[in-house]
Amino acid sequence: MNKRRIAILGSTGSIGRQALDVISRHPDKFETELLTANNNASLLIEQAIRFRPGSVVICNGDLYQTVSDALDPYDIKVFAGMGSVNDLVKSSAIDIVLAAMVGFSGLEPTIHAIKSGKIIALANKETLVAAGSIVMRLSREYGSPVLPVDSEHSAIFQCLQGERAEIEKILLTASGGPFLHTDAHTLRTVTKKQALRHPNWNMGAKVTIDSASMMNKGLEMIEASWLFNLPPDKIEIVVHPQSVIHSMVQFTDGSIKAQLGAPDMRVPIQYALSYPERISLDTERLDFPALSRLSFFAPDPERFPAVSLAYAAHKQGGNMACIMNGANEMAVSAFLEDKILFHRIPHIIEKTMEKCSFVVAPSLEDIYRTHAEAKALAAELIRKETE
Ligand code: MG
């Protein structure tokens, strides 16, 4: 395989750091061309000195001088601001753009990368939730493949290799998060610290809170629907607390294919970077006799209303999933700032979905407008909660 030149948008986050770990293990196959970070200047500097990308971007302009001074002795160009990320992803020195920024902010640079014909390794599910129809249309138009990095979607993608058959349904597995067995009453007052303690996966704060509320699985259902071109009623969420099966595909003859492995995000990251090849990785291997038991059950809509909200939003279509996503981003930050209780997250999302302007066939401009409106409405609801 030819050496691939990689841009990592969000290199100091959980996915970005694990991607650099993968790259460091295969210096003959990958090299970093661009690293970007929002605020973590010290880690960005450290990564840049180690991996020597052509350019780095620190999105927070206040930190530009710090990064620029530290990297002065090296042959690395330093830029600031989101505008620079949007420009630099177009560089002909980049083959693959790993979109690993958090939340809605990943949308704009991903669109620029698609329009310049890059391979997109997509870790940012909010991009497809907010603007799935636009992103997938542009991906076809510009011939820029969107490859999944999310572990479930990578599993489905791996199960589909070599298949031309119709998919009967996707079985999207969910760990159930830290509150899988927490009763509804206790769920009202769980703390930030408890919510941030995920049993199986090591991830950033936003996705960990989304996992605790199970909104993550709602977002992933929508992401799967766009990536694999399936209606929501063909995507079934199955709770599987051990996270050994990363998801499954059921075909029309009743056969089911699953992808299994120890939970380690480096596997789906590497698969997206090396696709269609599969290369070695020193992950923990499954020991089947030691596994003893794999369990499965349906999600509880009473305790985890976020799942039903996601199905409702996606079935309604238009900009509704974008509204839901914007409200969720706002509610999750409010919870992380101790402004609202955990069980108010889905409530705020639901109320925002009722109030925000609905657009049947949104343009990209409508999507940006919707995101801002949904966040403003959710912020207003949060303000009322805290009065
Ligand atoms: Mg996932």
Biggest pleated sheet: 7 strands, parallel
Quote the beta fraction. Answer: 5-15%
Please identify the structural class as seen in this structure.
Answer: alpha/beta
- Can you write the helix and strand succession as a string? EHEHEHEHEHEHEHEHHHHEEEHHHHHH
As residue ranges, the low-confidence spans are none
* CATH fold annotation of the largest domain: Rossmann fold
By CATH, the superfamily of the largest domain comes out as NAD(P)-binding Rossmann-like Domain
Which CATH-level-2 architecture of the largest domain? 3-Layer(aba) Sandwich
The tally of structural domains comes to 3
What's the β-strand tally? 11
Number of contiguous helices: 17
Broad CATH class of the largest domain: Alpha Beta
Strand order of the largest sheet: 4-3-2-1-5-6-7
Bound molecules: magnesium ion
Helix proportion: 40-55%
Let me know the average pLDDT.
96
Termini Cα gap: 59 Å
Structure description:
It is built from 17 helices and eleven strands. By secondary structure, it is of the alpha/beta class. The protein folds into three domains: 4-148, 3-Layer(aba) Sandwich (Rossmann fold); 150-264 and 278-301, no CATH class; 317-387, Rna Polymerase Sigma Factor, Chain: A, CATH 1.10.1740.10. α2 packs parallel to α3 (64-70), α6 (125-142) packs parallel to α11 and α16 packs across α17 (364-386). It is globular, with a radius of gyration of 20 Å. The structure holds magnesium ion. Residues 150-152, 220 line the site of magnesium ion (MG).
